[in-house]
Amino acid sequence: PANTNAAIVAAHAEGLDPRRVTALTRLDHNRGLAQVADKLGVAVRDLENMTVWGNHSASQFPDVAELTLNGEKVADKLDAAWVNDEFIPRVAKRGAEIIEVRGRSSAASAASAAL
Predict the structure, then answer these.
(1) Domain containing 68 — which CATH number?
(2) Which domain holds residue 31?
(3) Could you tell me which of 31, 24, 59 has the C-alpha nearest to residue 47?
(4) pLDDT tens sequence for the chain (115 residues)
């Protein structure tokens, strides 16, 4: 319900700019952008319009269909096998991967995504 809760806040919090409302799926969004940037050898700041559908859980779906690099769509520059077999599952399971490697959560990443 992370996105639903964020949508409710954005719609009903008087005086709060809806563009200031985010959910922990922003953390997943950031992780996805970092992976694509690494794959393409570009800066994260040059990527825009990636969407993460679903919840902040392993069932989420990071979507690169509208992702742009300096204003140009990049979906056709990404190998479909990489997107489907590596990118999507890794974004969805990255939190668990970090906990397994570090032995604790990625609290600093979550805090950064919330700001």
Answers:
(1) 3.90.110.10
(2) 23-114
(3) 31
(4) 778 888 999 999 999 999 998 887 888 999 999 999 999 999 999 999 999 998 778 888 999 999 999 999 999 999 999 999 999 999 988 776 776 787 777 666 666 666 6
Q: How many alpha carbons lie under 13 Å from residue 23 in its C-beta half-sphere?
A: 18
pTM recorded for the entire structure: 0.78
Query: Is 12 a catalytic site residue?
Result: no
Active-site residue, selected from the candidate residues 29, 31, 56, 94:
56
Terminal alpha carbon distance of the chain: 19
Specify if 15 maps to a domain: no
Q: What is the DSSP string of 25-93?
A: HHHHHHHHHHHHHHHHT--GGGEE--EEES-SSTT-EEE-TT-EETTEE-GGGS-HHHIIIIIHHHHHH
